[in-house]
């Protein structure tokens, strides 16, 4: 069973406070070094350290605090990381004070961090780092030694990126069986790559039997080209799970039959919070089986069924099932063949989702009808929405007013993606006006929307002075050379905020726009600019009216 496809899917945009960047960690070490070595209320009371001692202790304090906070975060991976950040800060402060308290009166003796910080036992065993490679019996014996150590605290294991043969699996099986009662998270993604089908199925059976009866919260079986046979090879493991909270079956060849097997073999989903089926060949009938799992998952918070070849029939059933998941925070249905009729079904489900923060609906053939229905539903729900993606849906300026009204109501919006549509200047200007008060905005994608100079300019002026803004993408449009120069002038102090314009086509105007473009570049340019300003004012009036008028639907 060959599994040569690399795990190339991109992680959806998500706002996370944890983990801190390397730069942030270094800055914290520098600050603690200064606190330990400079005159402060605490160093005057106890005694300060030399710069060298302070730097050494600051690094050890930061590392210990990071480990403690990271272990806390791993237990709550769906949060934004704020509680981990708070714990990180508290631990650093506490350990600084403990170090100062234990400084001996004599300057001859050094104080060690180990005297104030209890040993933090490792809980995560990971062999996925490094080059993708086969693993056989001898290497497995050596590699898995830490798991055999008496009293180890490993509760999370990752065997991804290492391809187990039958002999390596026979080494791993008894080790995992002895460890299974303490395991909470198991990642077996991409662990039989390049093996023939018979050997891969034997390996899966060994691992499944070894882990049967474990009490897992997290299970990742992605990138294994499972198909129905592979799903059933993991049957003993799947059937024995009663407290599973996260299940990943991405890039696994999940066909209709395999989806039915998953629905059959995962009977207990009452506690399931995360379910990902990205990049499979599920189809409509397979989507019906997945919908049954969704119906049995009332606590679902994060659902991904992207690139699964689902059409309008399966999409409608799936979207109806999503209406039963009132806790949903993230929804990713990208790259399926839904059509506008599924958009009408989905809008009913979305109206019930007050907790949604991220929604990915690109490349679903929604068209104006589906896009308007969804925008109207989201306008009155999901108050904390941070990410909205609806690229590649044949959306025109007809839907712009509804989308703009929805956007205007989402003051926490951080990322907006409407690329590869047909919004043109009229739609882009309405969208830009709706974004004017959004202080959390980070990224806007309006690429390939038949924009000209006017629409691109208004978007640029809207986002330029937002404190958190990082990237505007208007590539692949019909912006004149003068318009490109104008954009570069607008962003001259922060050119990194403007995405590349290498695919812009100054000559690619639509036939309806050719006359206006000729005027703009000719002697009547001033008149056209005045006409544009008048159009913008009219659009502002329309925008305000749409925001004040209750939705008739």
From TrEMBL:
GO MF: GTPase activator activity
A Pfam family of this chain: WPP
Composition bias type Basic and acidic residues, residue spans: 533-545
Residues of the WPP domain: 14-109
Region (Disordered): 496-553
GO cellular component assignments: cytoplasm; nucleus
Keyword hit for Cytoplasm: yes
Biased composition (Acidic residues): 502-532
Main location: cytoplasm
Coiled coil spans: none
SMART domains the UniProt entry points to: LRR_RI
Keyword check for Nucleus: yes
Record-linked Gene3D superfamilies: Ribonuclease Inhibitor (3.80.10.10), WPP domain (1.10.246.200)
Subcellular location: Cytoplasm; Nucleus
Keywords annotated in UniProt: Cytoplasm, Nucleus
Protein name per its UniProtKB record: Ran GTPase activating protein 2
């Amino acid at each position: 069973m060959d599994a040569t496809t690399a795990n190339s899917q991109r992680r959806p945009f998500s706002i996370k406070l944890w983990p801190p960047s390397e730069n942030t960690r270094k800055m914290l070490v520098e600050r603690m070094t200064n606190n330990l070595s400079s005159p402060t209320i605490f160093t005057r009371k106890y005694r300060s350290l030399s710069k060298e001692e302070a730097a050494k202790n600051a690094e050890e304090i930061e590392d210990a605090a990071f480990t403690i906070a990271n272990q806390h975060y791993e237990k709550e991976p769906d949060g934004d990381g704020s509680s981990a950040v708070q714990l990180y800060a508290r631990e650093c402060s506490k350990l600084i004070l403990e170090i100062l308290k234990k400084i001996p009166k004599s300057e001859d003796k050094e104080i060690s961090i180990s005297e104030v910080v209890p040993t933090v036992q490792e809980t995560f065993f990971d062999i996925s780092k490094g080059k993708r490679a086969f693993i056989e019996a001898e290497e497995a014996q050596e590699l898995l030694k830490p798991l055999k150590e008496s009293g180890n605290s490993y509760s999370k294991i990752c065997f991804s990126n290492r391809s187990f043969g039958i002999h390596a699996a026979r080494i791993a099986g008894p080790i995992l069986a002895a460890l299974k009662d303490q395991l909470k998270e198991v990642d077996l993604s991409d662990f039989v790559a390049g093996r023939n089908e018979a050997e891969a199925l034997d390996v899966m059976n060994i691992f499944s039997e070894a882990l049967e009866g474990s009490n897992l919260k997290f299970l990742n079986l992605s990138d294994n080209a499972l198909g129905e046979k592979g799903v059933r090879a993991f049957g003993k493991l799947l059937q024995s799970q009663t407290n599973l909270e996260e299940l990943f079956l991405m890039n696994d060849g999940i066909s209709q039959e395999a989806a039915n097997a998953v629905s059959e073999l995962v009977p207990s989903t009452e506690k399931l919070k995360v379910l990902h089926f990205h990049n499979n060949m599920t189809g409509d009938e397979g989507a019906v089986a997945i919908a049954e799992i969704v119906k049995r998952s009332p606590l679902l918070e994060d659902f991904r069924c992207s690139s699964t070849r689902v059409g309008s029939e399966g999409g409608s059933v799936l979207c109806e099932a999503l209406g039963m998941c009132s806790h949903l925070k993230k929804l990713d249905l990208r790259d399926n063949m839904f059509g506008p009729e599924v958009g009408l079904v989905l809008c009913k489900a979305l109206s019930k989702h007050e907790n949604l923060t991220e929604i990915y609906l690109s490349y679903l053939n929604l068209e104006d009808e589906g896009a308007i229905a969804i925008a109207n539903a989201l306008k009155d729900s999901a108050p904390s929405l941070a990410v909205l993606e609806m690229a590649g849906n044949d959306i025109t300026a007809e839907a712009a007013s509804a989308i703009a009204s929805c956007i205007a109501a989402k003051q926490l919006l951080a990322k907006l993606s409407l690329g590869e549509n047909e919004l043109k200047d009229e739609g882009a200007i309405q969208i830009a006006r709706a974004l004017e008060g959004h202080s959390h905005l980070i990224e806007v994608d309006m690429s390939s929307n038949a924009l000209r100079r006017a629409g691109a300019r208004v978007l640029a002026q809207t986002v330029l002075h937002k404190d958190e803004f990082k990237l505007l993408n208007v590539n692949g449009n019909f912006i004149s050379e003068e318009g490109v120069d104008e954009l570069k002038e607008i962003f001259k102090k922060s050119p990194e905020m403007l995405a590349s314009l290498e695919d812009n086509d100054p000559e690619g105007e639509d036939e309806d726009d050719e006359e206006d473009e000729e005027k703009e570049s000719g002697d009547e340019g001033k008149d056209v600019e005045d006409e544009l300003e008048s159009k913008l004012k009219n659009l502002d009036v329309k925008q305000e009216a749409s925001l004040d008028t209750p939705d008739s639907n």
